[in-house]
Amino acid sequence: MWGRNFYVGVLKPVCDWLLAFFLLILISPFFLSVTLVLFIHFLRNPFFVHQRAGRNERPFYLLKFRTMKVDYEELSMTGLGKFMRSFSLDELPQLINVLKGDMSLVGPRPLLMEYLPYYNITERSRHNVKPGITGWGQVNGRNKIDWGERMRLDIYYVENISLSLDMKILIKTLVEVFKRDKTSYVQGKTIKFSEYAANR
Q: How confident is the model at residue 189 (pLDDT cuts 50, 70, 90)?
């Protein structure tokens, strides 16, 4: 137990910060180029900022690259946005969230604040750790699995968090990115957790 506490409380945050810092330095030319291209493409702020629930259910502002535009008061994804999501490039600004201490590289994905009243006691434990850019649910089905399975996977991660599990998730994430999974940008109605919880 001491080893797990040391990893979660000391080693994991240090590794997160160092890896996020060096990754941002490494990709900074690409990051700045994408920012400029998106600014020209959307003619507005290239970043999407949204409040999400973090560790201990505390709110923070999640950063992503913008992928959608407003047409006649409705959101629609552009071709560039689909390309960005297919390679998960829209998630890159979350490295800044990791540097700020709001997120980890690996953890349950941060969800909407409006979902908090709908969690049962077991599901609330997903907030016992920092949310992650990628997670156990992300590499085991992502949006292809239902909310019940996603919650089960998140809880499994929280209860079994370790260096070896984090490394496994990071490796599987790289594989999924290069496979160019289209799940994340397929158009269609997405069932909200609040809708799922109200009908279970």
A: low
How much is the CA Rg of the chain, to the nearest whole Å? 17
**pLDDT tens per residue, range 19-60:** 999 999 999 999 999 999 999 998 889 999 999 999 999 999
Q: Cα angle at 64 between 184 and 142, to 5 degrees?
A: 25
* DSSP state for residue 89 in the 8-state scheme: G
Q: Which long-range contacts (C-beta less than 8 Å, at least 24 apart) are formed by 45-53? A: 47/93, 48/90, 51/113, 52/110, 52/111, 52/112, 52/113, 52/131, 53/110, 53/111, 53/112, 53/113, 53/115, 53/116, 53/127, 53/131
Q: Are 51 and 61 in contact (CB under 8 A)?
A: yes
Terminal Cα distance for the chain, rounded: 35
Reported pTM:
0.89
- Structure token pair of residue 87: 């390679």
Distance CA 3, CA 194 (A): 36
Residue 145 pLDDT: 87
